Amino acid sequence: MTEEKSKVAESLAEFRGNYAYNLLDENLRGFNADVPILYQWDDHEVLNNWYPQEILTDPRYKEKSVALLAARGKRAFLEYTSIRTILRDPERIFRQIPYGPLLDVFMLDLRSYRSPNGPNRQTAPGEETDLLGKTQMEWLKSALKASKATWKVIASDMPIGLIVYDDYINKNTFENGANGSGQPLGRELEMANLLRFILQNQIKNVVWLTADVHYTAALKYDPAAAQFKEFRPFYEFVSGPLNAGTFGPNELDNTFGPKVLFQKTPPPGQANLSPLSGMQFFGEVNINAATKVLTVDLKDMTGESLYSVGLKAEG
Fold it and tell me: What is the maximal distance between C-alpha atoms in the chain?
């Protein structure tokens, strides 16, 4: 135990200390040395399920402003991770990483610009339904439309059609967009707007990669099975985190018609399994340069492929 890790992080020194603490582990240092990493942040870089407008009531925190905690957490995050930022917005995390003619990766930030977590049932879009936020959404649309790459992979820190509750006991407030089956409401309006844009602009070969829910799954979204139908069919692959308790499965929201093709979760009644149980997962994506087939493998910690699918590129 280090001094910075002995309590909840509030000061900049304590947030820095969280990253320094992780680097005491030789396995993580070896991973960092061997594996190129594209970083995005989620809630636990600050505190569980946070949003910028939040004022804490947790007695462990002397600093109650989440906006201030997030500013300190983001500074430590940017200091300890290798993110290429831009001069006009040096703290911007969302970005595009080109990999030549076959692949563009779009890294999202669903934390910095979000509206407050709540019932998520608004019937019209506005600032209270933001998840990406206006600036990031405009960037993503423009970047997707301009991309000449065969495959457009969107790395999203939260899933689309799996429900993530903020209040998981009462199940009446939500962390992501999914808020229960039916027509788009609340933050789902933002996703519906994006999916409609992709359809209208004939943007092909979009694949979503996500994590957050502590298990692994493959989902296909089909307008024929959806309540909202103005989108192209697409896949979403879930895996991670690297080393944490294993949960799941999460409830499905049929707004965008997800179908579970595969999932690996703890047995019923065994949530938050220790990593020592072996239920840790990661995904591997390969693109064949000749055929342009994108193959996704969902793997366990031994490297065994649990599920594999090859996606053919649309011309």
Answer: 58
Q: How many CB atoms lie within 10 A of CB 202?
A: 9
Could you identify the residue written with the tokens 């300190």? 72
Enumerate residues 6+ apart whose C-beta is below 8 A from 226: 254, 255, 256, 257
- Whether the model clears a pTM of 0.85, i.e. scores above it, the answer is yes
Spans of all domains in the chain: 1-91, 94-278
In the chain, the percentage of residues whose pLDDT exceeds 70 is 100
269-276 long-range contacts, CB within 8 A, separation 24+:
271/245, 271/246, 271/247, 272/245, 272/246, 272/247, 273/245, 273/246, 274/245, 275/243, 275/244, 275/245, 275/246
Distances in Å between the Cα of 176 and the Cα atoms of 254, 281, 310 are: 14, 22, 28
Give me the CATH code for the 94-278 domain, please: 3.60.21.70
The strand pair at 305-311 and 294-300 is best described as antiparallel
Angle in degrees, 0-180, between the axes of helices 12-22 and 66-80, rounded to the nearest 10: 40
pLDDT at residue 92 in the model: 95
Q: Which tokens go with 169?
A: 């006991």
